[in-house]
Specification:
The protein is mainly α. It has a domain of 27 residues. 57% of the residues lie in helices and 5% in strands. It has a two-stranded antiparallel ribbon. The longest helix is centred in the middle third of the chain and has 25 residues. It is elongated and about 45 Å long. The chain starts with 13 loop residues before the first strand and ends with a strand.
Length: 82
């Protein structure tokens, strides 16, 4: 059975993790992440303070990592093209 899974985020060439998106869905996730962080800067930071913004940003980062884990290539350590 062929693996028809399309990845939104490729594995990095060097190191561990994911690179820039390779599908429009990945770019949409990155755009939504950036918009939500900027919205937190504009609305949450002035009204609730730094601690709330840090917690909000940590939550957004955790969600982004979960999406990358689910829709990206399996992460592993890479040493280039070897």
């Amino acid at each position: 059975m062929p693996n028809d899974k399309t990845y939104w985020f490729p594995a990095k060439r060097y190191g561990w993790g994911w690179g820039l998106p390779i599908a429009w869905q990945g770019w949409a996730v990155m755009a939504a992440f950036a918009i939500l962080v900027l919205a937190g800067v504009a609305f949450l930071l002035p009204s609730r303070g730094e601690a709330a913004f840090v917690a909000y940003s940590a939550f957004l980062c955790a969600v982004l990592i979960a999406i990358c884990w689910a829709k990206g290539e399996p992460p592993s350590w890479h040493w280039g093209d070897r």
